Amino acid sequence: MAAETNEAPEGAPATQDGAKTGSTPANATANAATTEKLTSAQLKAKAKAEKAARRAQVKEARATVGTGPPAQDKGAASDGKGAKGKGKQDGQQTQSKGGPPQAHRPSISGRRPSMPIVEKDVRSGIPDSFSHLPMAKRIPTSQAQKDVHSAVLAVGQQMATFALNDSISRLKATLLAFRKVIESYETPEGNSLSRHFVPHVLNPQIEYLTECRPMCFAMGNAIRLLKGKVNKFDIDTAEDEAKEGLLEWIDLLINERITMAEYAIARNAAQSINEGDTILTYGRHRLVEKTLLEAKHDGKIFDVTVIDDPFERGGQELAKTLRHAGIPVLYSPNLGGLRPKVAAASNVLLGGEAIFANGSLHAPSGTADVAMAAMNAGVKVIVLCETINFDRDRVSVDSLTYNEIDPERNTADCFRLLFDNTHDKYITGVITEFESGGGNSPAQAILALLRKQEDPLID
To answer: Which portions of the chain have biased composition (kind: Low complexity) (predicted)?
Structure first.
C-alpha cells in the first residue's frame, strides 16, 4: 500500500502528508487531485504577484543607490522553487517594511559610496554662546561672483590670510582696489552712475571682502562716506566727471585720513614723552612705533618696555626697530610679570583698532590687561587712534559683542579671540589727528571730536 502511495504525482505535498498520516489509497488519490487542482490556479497567481513585487523592490533600490543588489535577485529566483526560499524572502520583505529602506544601509566598510564627502565644519567646536562671532576664511577665486574685480579678489585673499592685518592697512588696500574698480567702470546705457554704481558694482565688491574677513570699523566708515559721495552726484552728471570726482575723493581720503593723520598723531604723541621717561607698550602698533621714532628724532632720551603678544610676536620686530634707532629696549615675550613692569613705567602708549561711542577701546587681545594694570599702578594710559576708526553709533561694554575668532588657533578643545574691550575708565586720554588741548582728549569726548569734524569729505 505504501508503494502505491509513493507513486503519486510529484509536487503533491498533500499526498505525502496523507501517506504519513496513514490514509487509504482512495482518499490519498482524491486529496492529491483536489490539491493539484488548487495549486495550478493559486500558486501560479501567487508566484506572479511575488515576482512583480520583487521587481518593483529592485527597481526602487536601484533608483536610490544606483546599483541593484544582485545577491537579493539570486535569492528571489530561488524562492519560487520551494517554500524554504519563499519563506526567507518574505522575512526580508517584512524587515524592509518595518525598518529603514535597504537602499540607505551602509556598506560593509561603513561608507556610502553614493553620498558626497562632507568637509568638517571649522566652527563645529565653538560653543553656542560664541557662535555669533565671525571668522576669516579663504574663499577660492573660482567661487567668487563674476562681478568682483580682480584687484578686490587680491585684497580679499590678503585679508583672509592676514597678510593685511591692522585696520588702516586693510582700509588703504580696499580704497586703492575700489579706485581700480571705478577706473574700469562703464555706466550701462539707460542708467546713471549715481543710481547704478553702488547696488550693481560696489556692493558685490563689499560682499566679497566681508566674506573673506569681517569688515573693520575703518572700512565701514570709509564705505559709508564713499556711498554718500556717490549719492550726491546729480542723475545728469556725466560719467567721466563723476568718475574723476570719485578718484580725487579717494586720493583725498587716503592723504588726509591716513597719511596726514599718522603724521599728526605721531607728532602730538611725541610731545607727551619727556626726558628720562620709560614708555611701556603692548605688541606692535604702527602709530606707537612712529611716535617713539619721532620722539627719538627730536633728541629725547628715554627707555621703552615692550610687552609682546604671545601669539602674534609683533613686539619682536618693534624691539629690533627701536634698538636699531638707538633706543634702549626691555623686551618681554608675554604678560608674565606685568605688574612690576607697568609700575616702573612713566606712560603707557597703546594703539587701537577702534573706539566706540561710549569711549571703550577695541584693540588686540591683551590690551585690556595692560591698561587695567597701568591704571591700578597709577600710570597714565594714552591711546593713539585715527578718527576714521571711531564708531559714532555703537557702544561696547564687553569683548563678546564685536569680535573675531582666530582661524589659525581654533581647535575642538579651544579657540582664541582676536580683540578685547577696554573700558573708558582705564584710559587717561586719546590722541587723534585733531588737536584738542595738545591733541590729548578724554575717551568720553569722542562724539565731540566727531561733531567737530562733521565729515567734510562728503561735502
So the answer is: 26-35, 71-80, 90-99
Taking the model in full, what pTM does it have?
0.72
Choose among 179, 262, 245: nearest CA to 459: 245
Looking at domain 136-261, its CATH class is: mainly alpha
Cβ atoms within 10 Å of 92's Cβ, excluding its own: 16
Cβ atoms of 403 and 231 closer than 8 Å: no
262-296 confidence digits (pLDDT tens): 999 999 999 999 999 999 999 999 999 999 999 99
Query: In the numeric block, which cell numbers belong to residue 427?
Result: 584710559
CA distance 284 to 264: 19
As a CATH number, domain 271-458 is 3.40.50.10470
**Cross-strand partners of 420:** 363
Contact 310, 365 (CB under 8 A): no
∠ CA(322), CA(418), CA(173), 5° rounding? 70
Tens digits of residue pLDDT in 91-139: 444 444 444 444 444 444 444 444 444 455 677 678 888 888 999 998 8
Helix (H, G, I), strand (E, B) or coil at 392: coil
Query: Residue 260 CB: number of other CB atoms within 10 A?
Result: 13
Q: Where in the chain is the domain with CATH 3.40.50.10470?
A: 271-458
Question: When comparing pLDDT for 59 and 14, which is higher?
Answer: 59
Q: What angle do CA 222, 406, 351 make, to 5 degrees?
A: 50
Closest CA to 88 of 103, 98, 78, 102: 78
- Cβ pair 12, 35 in contact under 8 A: yes
**End-to-end alpha carbon distance in the chain:** 122
